[in-house]
Structures are given as structure tokens and as C-alpha cells.
Design a protein that fits this description.
Elements (H helix, E strand, L loop, with lengths): L8 E7 L16 E2 L2 E2 H10 L4 E8 L17 E4 L4 H9 L9 E4 L9 H14 L3 E6 L4 E4 L3 E5 L5 E10 H13 L7 H7 L5 E4 L10 H13 L3
Parallel strand pairs: 1-4, 1-6, 4-5, 7-11
Antiparallel strand pairs: 2-3, 6-10, 7-10, 8-9
Helix pairs in contact: 2-4, 4-5
Length: about 230
């Protein structure tokens, strides 16, 4: 880790979603994984990175689950989440001082398996280049395009799975999200907002086991991976 990153980074975790695809009465970020909620695991990974000095959680206004976590007794900052991820992240960015924290890292609440070393690699690469970037994993499978039937086979060359964290200059990301929302553009992650605004986004390869818990089977897979990953 380079010294230039220390005391310069805030982190945002959008955690206002309800996770309909999980088919659970409890939002996926509050499902239990090895005795802790998924959200607690994800936040712990960010806390392990020395360069991250401030963490913001974007929570639903009527969230009835957060107060039962151990995060309520910490220095975590809370902000009201929005209708979509982009609104939640922008709401948090409004409170982050871009002079005190010129860089911001955004991480999915439902990615509890990200490795500390991968987060540090992303931060280091981006600071060295002076450009924002994302953790990503190269596509390894044969890719098909279609609905009920295959329309075509798509080359997997130069295709990547977008992961998180995603790491960008605070002021640039705030402007990109604000402008995309004002233009009615539905961006699904921070990188797509930056791309839409005309900024380059670096790809930094991370471990493919940094999965996002989305479907019921993902929770069991995450439990298995958590036993294997040591950092």
C-alpha cells in the first residue's frame, strides 16, 4: 500500500435493497453467514484496510434489522438510502467531504468474500495511475446471447465480470451520478456512471470467489468459500 492512500479514502456501502431474488423474508444483507450478517462480514473486510478511514452505510428509511447488528455500536456513518443503488450512493456522497476524502470506494453489501489484498491492489493501482477503476474477473465460460434460444455465441475475449469494490475520485463520481440521474440514465454501478460521463475506468483483476449473494444457492456457496478464504 502506498503512503499517498492513507487517510484519504471513504467507503460507501449501499444497503437499502430488499433482495427479491433471494426469496427470503429478510433482505440478503441481513441473512446470517457463519454467525454474522452478510453486511457485517462485508463491512469487516473494509475495516481491515488501513487506508479506509470512514465508512458510510446507505440504509432504507424503515430498516428494522440494522439495530440488531453489532454495527450500531461502531463509528459507522448512516445515511438514508434511495430508490436505486445510484441514489443511495449519491446520498452518501453528499455527506463525504471531497477535500478530506478525495477518493471514495463503493462496495456491495452482499459481497462478504472480497479479499483485503484485492481491495489494497485496487487502491494502489488506481492511485498510481491517477484514474478510477474496479475489481473485475475475466469471463471464463463460453458466452451466448439470446432469450429462450441461442441467438449467437459471443467471444469471451476482453469480457469481464464487474465486481466491487469500485474506486473513484469523489468529486468525479458525485458529478457523474448526479448528471446520470438528472438525464434519466439508469446506471447499475458506479463504473457505468463514470463511463457514461466519458471517464476511463481501469480493470483490476480480483479473485472470482468475490461473489455477490443474489440467489438462495449463493448463501451456501458463500459459507463454503468463507471457510477457505483466510483474508
Amino acid at each position: 500500500m502506498t503512503d499517498t492512500s492513507v487517510s484519504a479514502i471513504a467507503a460507501v456501502v449501499p444497503a437499502a435493497g430488499i433482495g427479491k431474488r433471494m426469496q427470503s423474508a429478510v433482505p440478503k444483507q441481513y441473512l446470517k453467514l457463519h454467525g454474522k450478517t452478510v453486511l457485517e462480514h462485508s463491512v469487516a473486510k473494509l475495516r481491515a484496510v488501513r487506508a479506509i478511514n470512514q465508512i458510510w452505510l446507505a440504509l432504507a428509511a424503515d430498516d428494522p434489522y440494522f439495530d440488531a447488528t453489532e454495527l450500531t455500536h461502531s463509528d459507522i456513518n448512516r445515511v438514508k438510502g434511495g430508490a436505486e443503488r445510484m441514489h443511495s450512493v449519491l446520498n452518501a456522497l453528499q455527506f463525504i467531504d471531497e477535500h478530506q476524502f478525495p477518493w471514495v470506494l463503493v462496495h456491495d453489501a452482499a459481497r462478504p468474500l472480497v479479499r483485503k489484498a484485492d481491495i489494497e491492489l485496487l487502491i494502489t493501482r488506481c492511485l498510481q495511475q491517477g484514474e478510477g477503476g474496479i475489481l473485475a474477473s475475466p469471463v471464463r465460460d463460453t458466452m451466448k446471447r439470446g432469450a429462450c434460444y441461442v441467438a449467437e455465441t459471443v467471444s469471451r475475449e476482453h469480457l469481464w465480470h464487474a465486481l466491487t469494490p469500485q474506486f473513484f475520485p469523489t468529486a468525479m463520481l458525485k458529478a457523474a451520478l448526479h448528471d446520470a440521474i438528472q438525464a434519466g440514465v439508469n446506471v447499475t454501478d458506479e463504473a457505468s456512471a463514470m463511463e457514461w460521463a466519458g471517464h476511463r475506468v481501469m480493470l483490476v483483476e480480483g479473485h472470482s470467489d468475490n461473489i455477490k449473494i443474489t440467489q438462495p444457492a449463493d448463501l451456501a456457496l458463500a459459507a463454503f468459500y468463507l471457510e477457505q478464504v483466510t483474508e
